[in-house]
Design brief:
mainly alpha; 11 helices; Cytochrome_c4-like; heme; Cyt_c-like_dom_sf
């Protein structure tokens, strides 16, 4: 909880004027090259790639800039991903703002989940005090819409497999662009079964 409080204070102190104003119509055109993986409207049909529709624009901008930064610094900064890095390296700040504006304006399509593990709901809503696992609700909210001002993404309706991949990366420290290492701290305490249950539950939230 100390890291959460510190993260919120850091976000509150951050200024936003540096962000370019995005144009959704311009972003729609620029997003054509992204549609093979993320779908024409940001609702990816491939479960290893995230749905981008309805995501907070500031979060989308952050991720694209960090994919670009990782390529520019050889992985010393940002978020390293060979595929996304090669896509983001040529984007300007305006391109990124336009893409974020487009995807955030699209409606998320949430698929029905056949089996929703009770263990996933329990972890999401209440965490596990005995293991020092903070509830996901604390940052992502009961409806999994996240908190844009604090930089916490919307998760509800996301592909379960994508969530599973990212939680595993945070746990294994293969992804470390989370504010203050908060997601790494949570994920390192999760078992494979925990991650599986959480991923399926989160993907079912509408």
């Amino acid at each position: 909880m100390k890291k959460l409080a510190l993260a919120l204070s850091v976000v509150a102190a951050m200024s936003s004027p540096a962000m370019a104003e995005g144009n959704a119509e311009a972003g729609k055109t620029k997003a054509l090259v992204c549609s093979a993986c993320h779908g024409v409207d940001g609702n990816s049909m491939i479960d290893m790639y995230p749905k981008l529709a309805g995501q907070h624009p500031s979060y989308l901008e952050k991720q694209l800039k960090e994919f670009r930064s990782a390529m520019q610094t050889g992985g010393k900064e940002g978020r390293m991903d060979p595929i996304m890095g090669s896509m983001a390296i040529g984007l300007s700040d305006q391109d990124i703002a336009d893409l974020a504006a487009f995807y955030s304006s699209q409606a998320l399509v949430v698929a029905d989940v056949a089996e929703v593990p009770a263990a996933g709901e329990t972890l999401y809503k209440g965490g596990d005090m005995a293991r020092g696992i903070t509830s996901c609700v604390a940052c992502h909210g009961p409806d999994a819409k996240g908190m844009e001002a604090a930089g916490f993404p919307a998760l509800g309706g996301q592909h379960a497999n994508y969530i599973k991949i990212q939680l595993t990366k945070f746990r294994d420290t293969n992804r470390h662009n989370d504010l203050n290492g908060m997601m790494q701290d949570v994920a390192k305490k999760l078992s494979d079964a925990d991650i599986e249950a959480l991923s399926k539950y989160i993907s079912s939230i509408k």
